[in-house]
Amino acid sequence: MRTAVFYATREGQARRVAERVAAVLRRQRDEVDLIDVRGVRGRIDWSAYKGAFVVASVHVGHHEREMLRFVKKYQHELHALSAAFLSVTLSQAGAQDAAAPRARREQARADVQRMIDVFVAETGWRPERSLPVAGALAYSQYNFLVKLAMKWIARRSGAPTDTSRDYEFTDWQAVERFVLEHNGLARAS
Question: What are the structural domains of the chain?
Fold first, then answer.
């Protein structure tokens, strides 16, 4: 069985999520192609795949342009494979933060859902299943202006503002559960 894991990333957290998805699938004895959509040229042999995962990061409220173009172009093929979607966003960290006030968590959840809804509207693809994944604050990867903007956003949302280090908020167990559940459903059908 062969599965494609397509991803688009800027600072690398979505790539790390895609790599974890691939590792979980390989432990299930699946063959996996890990594909950065920025490098896709020419045709894809969709008949080689029995399933697919799409992993895309969010920046300034929108998913990566490369992933939007890719999914829009291949929405029918992704639908035929019952592909799953993992949306990597810092807002999900706010939704999961048990120490944050309830109103802040609910606002973060609403923001995450809005971003997924916008992705669906822009691409025309409605994923079989989707999982919002908490991303990271990669201060070391940001230029001065982005670092300043991210620190301001972090302060407003209650996230860490010490720019001397990076912060990862990804719930790796949730990612692994999602992959196993989706893969199990795909195998059963």
Answer: 2-136+170-188 (3.40.50.360)
Residuewise pLDDT in 10s, the chain (189 residues): 799 999 999 888 999 999 999 999 999 999 999 999 999 988 899 999 999 999 999 987 889 999 999 999 999 999 999 999 999 998 898 889 888 889 989 999 999 999 999 999 999 999 989 999 999 988 998 899 988 888 888 887 778 889 999 999 999 999 999 999 998 765 555
pTM comes to 0.91
The pair phi, psi for residue 43, each rounded to 5°, is -90, 150
Q: Which is nearest to 168 in space by CA: 66, 17, 39, 67?
A: 17
* Token representation of residue 167: 């912060």
Looking at the DSSP bridge assignments, the partners of residue 3 are 32, 51
Pairing of strands 62-63, 51-59: antiparallel
Strands 51-59 and 2-8: parallel
C-alpha closest to that of 17 among 139, 172, 166? 172
